[in-house]
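COURSE: Structural Biology Practicum
ASSIGNMENT: Worksheet 4, Part C
STUDENT ID: 0417
INSTRUCTIONS: Below are two proteins. For each, the amino acid sequence is given first, followed by its structure token string. Answer the questions at the end about the second protein only.

PROTEIN I
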Amino acid sequence: MAHVDMDAFYVSAERLDRPEWRQRPLIVGHDGPRSVVLSASYDLRALGVHSSQPVAQAKRLAPHAIVAEPRHARYQELSAGIMATLRQLSPAVEQVSVDEAYLDLSGALRGRGTPEELAARMRAGIREAVGLPASVGLAPNKFLAKMASGRAKPDGIFSIPPARVHEFLDPLPIGELFGVGEATARSLRLAGYSTAGQLAAARPEEVSKLLGQGAMKLALLARGIDDRPIVTEREEKSLGAEHTFGTDITDPATLERTLLWLAHRVAERARAADRLGEVVALKIRWEDFTTHSRQRRLERPSDAAAELAAAAVSLMRALPQPLPPVRLIGLRLDSLTPAGTGLQLSLDSTQDARRDAEETMDRINARFAGAVGPASLLGAGSPRRRIERGDEAGVAEGPAGNSPGAQGSG
């Protein structure tokens, strides 16, 4: 099993397109008071800067760092090239995020070299295809391969052969087991389990008293046992984007422009994935963190931003007015289906014309990131302009519940 993980993916992508930044300390994230770091260069990580950290705190730790605005369309484009390269080596590829994937090498091994040679071929192929560095972990299963890729960073290969699994795991501090958070590690240490080896040797009923239902799974992982298979197709059921304002917003026009902006981001990703959505959901959070969700089924499955935005705006206008100050707003497209099965021409030809225009924008922006967009989003009061001025916390994008904006890039 191999786990391929791109090295500081967002940072590497920005440096690829901006060679003058290649030796500069770099943070990728929106430069606003409520923003978080999406990715940081390795020199900044040594200073304590890390993903999901507030950008303001990161700037205090590293005032000399450049803060680059994220370009998710560009990252998706590079990701597609990376995954295509991996699938040339093995048909059993499971993409788990924009910048990482698992590969089952058992079928690819026959006559094609050792696992280490295949890992070197993966890294060389990725660098040739997209110009970016990758790290590869090799191990008998997913859990160990993920841990191995962490040891391979940056830009390397780390292997845990079957005969050395216990040599690797047994002395490992309990908090370094992948998936063990601080609170769990603290509870285990207080109970006398400081290493993975000690946890592996514990009786299941003892660990169950501490961790409940997750105890058996964790004990198995501590022994190096993980039987999860490669899942070659992971169907997304929803696509979403959300925006946290730098200051709470009460102006309805600003909120509606922001929903249009989010709709374009979601629609672009839906078209890239060849998916249509049947349900539009609105997420809105007040200044006191109270959060409300509303949804509406569309008349026809769609991947057109104008239709998604119209539904979301309608949902927002149906809320009790005037709205309290808004901290965050989001849009999600649910009930996704393959585009070929659900697209119907509208009786209103202007809707289909708008969709054609959006597809044209996709093609232009794929070559020149962010080059074109709706005129209504180019004014001084638009979300795009406010982000350029650094007034906004920005947008987090991804499948529902799995936003890259919250996870950062390794």
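PROTEIN II
(use this one for the questions)
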Amino acid sequence: MVAGWTKHGDGKTLAPGEVVKPDERLSWPRMVGFGAQHVIAMFGATFVFPLVMGLDPNVAIMFSGVATIMFLLIVKGKIPSYLGTSASFVGGVLAIRAAFGGDVPMADAIVTGSILVVGLVLALIGVAIHYVGVQIIHRIFPPVVTGAVVMLIGFGLAYVVADIYWPQDQWIALITMCVTFLIIVLFKGFIGRIGILLGLIIGFLLSWGADRIFGDITAYNAGTGAVDAHPRVSFGAVAQADWIGLPNMHLPDFKVSAVILVLPAVIALVAENVGHVKAVGEMTGTDVDPYIGRAIIGDGAATVVASAFGGSPTTTYAENIGVMAATRVYSTAAYYIAAVIAILFGLCPKFGALVAATPGGVLGGITVILYGMIGLLGAKIWIENRVDFSDPVNMVPVGAGIILAIGPVKQMISSDFTLEGIALGTIVVLVGYHVLRAISNRTGAGGGPGGPAGPVSETEPTGLKREAAG
């Protein structure tokens, strides 16, 4: 692969307006710098989301590197992109844990088994798109549906903040949230891009300081499931962890009822990949449509491999696309370097134990921002595609689906199977929209700029980016 990169100019400088193309590179020391920057850009979300889902962040970091290498090979180096942990599974994973015993090894295996199945489905969808064409996705998931699914995935997680994280330390959660607000808004450059990560670090340090000054906190303890006195930060596991070694991997287990809870994430992942690939194509000035199917196959295959060893689901990251937009260096060499660095991080168990020690209150302050921003990305999709909500075909199923997700509302299908929250809301939006559209004899794809008698847009779901992760 190294032989495939042509040195750009003298490998040291870029003239105004020049770009480094995917098959080009600068000098290797400079490429290492760009690779490290990509690691920092993806780092916050890639270890925060596994932490939220109860999965090992070290495994997630390591397999994000493996996933990125797989992706680049599958797309033949035509689409520079980094694959980090996906947020789309959080709601479904938490529902699985609630049904199968919480943060226990059995639930861990069922969670990763369910994610593996979704990755396989995503890869098969990619195969279909590769041979049939990307327009099939735009017809099944028009902007009104895609925006709704993204919104309910974000807002459907509100109960996690309210019931699990925030009660563990309300004041630290509030301060962490406010500090993160300020970092993201006041710093426009690189510091602002890693605002989530910096907010988490500051909240961690504040929690440690509060233990030294005020002593143990008496509040809800997620570890015991009860209100008791306990330190906000405990470094016991960090002291016991090795500096070098394999992270805590495990084999998956499979339950149909659990798979259904996370299956709606496929919709968001497809739309996310399409949006990101289009963005890369616009930046590089190349036609990437022939590679959209490959990109989705790559993401699905990477998720299968990662979850087979106890890792987190993957997705393409807009944070890294943002880094490319800022630097105008699109070389895939930087992504290979970033992937290797991530794999090395994953092989340090002490680092993983430190991440796992993040207090629940800090996660409350961080996730309230992440979940809200994810939800609002759905509204962004509607705005950019001029979705018409004066049309009841758009408004009725979308409104109902979002409320079902936010509830979260439970629907008993049988004595041992329940649909609830994000899964139920997604089904209502997708099926409801297409059924109502068929009943009303509409011929367009829906979600267009006009009213019931007006024109209808079949524009692809643009703007679906993981800006929520900083």
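ANSWER KEY EXCERPT:
Q1: Confidence is low (pLDDT under 50) at residues 443-470.
Q2: Residues 105-132 form the longest helix (28 residues).
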